[in-house]
Specification:
The complex is a heterotrimer of chains A (about 280), B (about 290) and C (about 350).
Chain A (H helix, E strand, L loop, with lengths): L1 H32 L14 H8 L1 H32 L6 H9 L6 H12 L4 H8 L19 H26 L2 H8 L4 H30 L2 H6 L7 H9 L7 H29 L3
Helix pairs in contact in A: 1-12, 2-12, 3-7, 3-9, 5-7, 7-9, 8-9, 9-12, 11-12
Chain B lengths: L10 H13 L6 H15 L2 H8 L1 E3 L9 E2 L2 H6 L6 H32 L5 H13 L2 H14 L6 H25 L4 H8 L4 H29 L3 H7 L6 H10 L3 H26 L5 H5 L3
Chain C lengths: L3 E8 L9 E8 L4 E5 L6 H9 L6 E6 L2 E2 L10 E4 L11 H11 L4 H14 L15 H13 L5 E5 L7 H18 L2 E6 L2 H7 L2 E6 L2 E6 L1 H6 L4 H6 L4 E8 L2 E4 L2 E4 L10 E4 L5 E2 L8 E11 L4 E7 L2 E7 L1 H4 L7 E5 L6 E3 L1
Parallel strand pairs in C: 3-8, 3-9, 6-7, 7-8
Antiparallel strand pairs in C: 1-2, 1-4, 4-5, 9-10, 11-12, 11-14, 12-13, 14-20, 15-19, 16-17, 16-19, 17-18
Helix pairs in contact in C: 2-3, 2-4, 3-4
The chains are: A mainly alpha (about 280), B mainly alpha (about 290), C alpha+beta (about 350).
Chain lengths: ~280, ~290, ~350
Amino acid sequence: MLERWKIVLLLSPALVIIAGLFLGGLILGLIGSLGYMPLLGREEFNLNAYRNILASERFYLSFLLTFYIAFTSTVIASLLAIGAALILRRSFIGRSVINFLFQINLTVPHLVGAVGILYLFSQSGFFARLAYEFEIITKPSEFPALIYDPLAIGIILQYVWKEVPFIGLILLANMQTIGRDYEAAARVLGASRWQCFRHVLLPLLFPGLLAAAMIVFAFTFGAYEIPALLGQNYPSALPVLAYQAFTDVDLNARPEALAMGMIIALLSVIMIFGYAHLARRYVRS
Amino acid sequence: MRILPAVMCDLEKELEVKRQRIESGEGLSWLTWFSLILLISWLILPLIPLAVWSISRSWFFPDITPSAYSLRAWSYVFSNTSEVLPALGVTTLIAFCATIVSAVIGVPAGRALGLYQFRGKAAIELLILAPTIVPGIAVALGLHVVFLNIGLAGSYLGVLIVHLIPTLPYMVLVMAGVFANYNPNTEAQARSLGASAIQTFYYVTLPAILPGLLIGSLFTFLVSWSQYILTLLIGGGRVVTLPLLLFNFASAGRNDITGAISMIYILPGVVLLLLGARHLTGRNSAAESLRQI
Amino acid sequence: MTNVSIENLVKLYPGRSVPAVKDVSLLIETGSLTALLGPSACGKSTILKMIAGLLAPTSGDIRFGDHSILRLPPEKRDAVMVFQDHLLFPYMTVAENIGFGLKMRRRPKAEISHAVGTMLELVKLDGMATRKPNQLSGGQQQRIALARALILRPKILLLDEPFSSLDANLRLEMQQLLKSLHQEMGMTMLFVTHDQEEAVALSSKIALILDGTLRQYADAATLYGQPEDLDVAKFFGAKNFIPGISSSGHFECALGRLTLPVTANSNGSMLTFRPENVVIGVTDSAENSFHATIESKKFLGNQTQLRLSKGGTTFDASLPPLIAAPLLEGSTVSVHLPRQSLWALP
């Protein structure tokens, strides 16, 4: 009995703040997206905002673009991270230096990476200049558009740049926990290097990889500043569209902004539960 | 921004790792080296033009390197008339306060989650984990109206409070990991030897959790330091932090000043990495705590 | 069938100055059940891993029959290892675990499932096929690990302390199982243990490894009764060590001129005999008999230990408690050391 009160006492400040701010924000967003905004003089519930955005082509294009960006960058980053982790866990000369360099952009904010990508890949950027130097192009506009482009290559490059070390380190930590014994057991049982990776290491890493990929997907789906800096205007990424609607002089756009916020939140919640479900079914040890 | 929570490697684990490294003593083939170098270069490459831009005077297409160098951008950044120094102060202050508040509230919560098993623990962990995954824009859009109404929108306090949404859960998760490896019996031992509750905390608990707390605090600082959309939405343009300034200069095409601000902006992270690089590669990670769902 | 021979094997881990395995040569006969015995960290597991292909030796050779296997990767060696922690793949069912090796060899599904069924019966776990490893007890898990290796019918089965994480009763049960499996399948098995009782109970031959060196390779009785040197004797629990000189079948020491068995070392300088072989009170034979004083007496439950002294030299004898009961501290008794119980160490 005493211990229970102790736990309640220890937890409640944090829970009050997190529930108040986080759940509160989500609930207020939900209510607002349903049109109920007493502070703006609206006191009725309706689904107009959802109806409006679901009827607009702009929303669909934004949603698809955002999904495509998030999915592509997560998959590419995961694949590269697996490769990097497989190399970095081996021992070789200079490993500690390489390890440090591998982690260096982990603490670099996304925005800085985005600016760096901009200076590298814009049509007057470093790679365009290199192309000019080697006489591949004669003027900036001949360099393929990788920034503000419909395929969002600049955005994806930025996310991949930032997320490979993140996923890679999670995988390395997982590999360290798993150890090499399972692989040794598989090898003596007749598995080749590839079979060993495919049938033993990958399944063991799978929950960790899935969790990391899910975090990355949710983040890339809801990030504002990177597509705002590197993305094209139409269609824009969903968070950018939501922000634009929110700051629109027409207050009628505000419930629509909140509705888009809800859709972003919903997707990340689906991610969390999807992961939890998969992980539970996959391994329970 | 998300970062791996820091980790305490106990000596034993480190020795074990060293042993494994020695046992598996294998080199890399040249192809592996090539792809490794390629990857690492790619990871560092975007930072280089920023550094070069910050000291260039003119760098026009198609020059590979600047045609003239100067410290113009840096002297602008440090001049009294620029907004950079005030923004640096504001960013630091908010991050510092968010870290302190998160530590004061997060350490007890981390202790409860790390040391005790109780009904509803999984649900509470999920609630604490969720804000680190659900994008901030979805939450901040909803909070904005209320913050506006009670006068927090556009204020430093409002931005500080909204920064707690990512920082506090982060600190709780880190401290839960620290307390999971902590033996509370040492406290009982101290009490039986005559220490008061406060003495016990100061002489027994604090020293034991201090390394984890420090690293956790540094990362929490960085989480607040990197916030963009929360500051933009709740600060409403009146609270100008470094990332907001950086974004403005970048979209205005002032590449030299953007480069200089970027260099200042990444500094705490790089310092932190230098301090805590050893602790980063450990077992506990954001994903590890996700496994508890 | 082929013998497995290890020739002048050396393993020096990078960054160490002393090799973990120093020049070990060993011939493991086809169909034998051999133990590599030694204290922990003596290099025995390293030898096993080198045979399995998980570690590369610094020098030396390992041959299956006439062929060196050093250049083969682990999966091609046909030497399967069972680890101390069962290392069952947690995300696979019991059946999938047992069938893993055959699946890696791309055998047809029907063949695999039939073989798995047979194996499950053999280790007495039929009906467990669809369970996950974490639903099994420690003993069951280790049996699955055994089955997973046996199903491949390797040229040699390597067992690295397979039962040391089990409790005492379970360990005996598993030893029985392993012994009967060995008899049934006639497979060559090499197992590592630090437990001399386990080594003695299971194996036909024991290779004693101390500090990375092979010290003696013989059957259990020889290791107990005729250790090659003092270290071997001490490892097998010998107690009494009396210095002296051996000459022409006799040993001159503080206990007198004792007659040695005919097989004894000719140039011994240390006499050893087991406390349980000391005969007290009955002196039919004049050979190797003398009087000694009981210095102290200790009751140890299933036996009583006497410390005896003669001419300033002390030695231990152990007797059944009932027989030792009338013997008093300080009294003099007649002692007989049967010739066959004596052994002279160099």
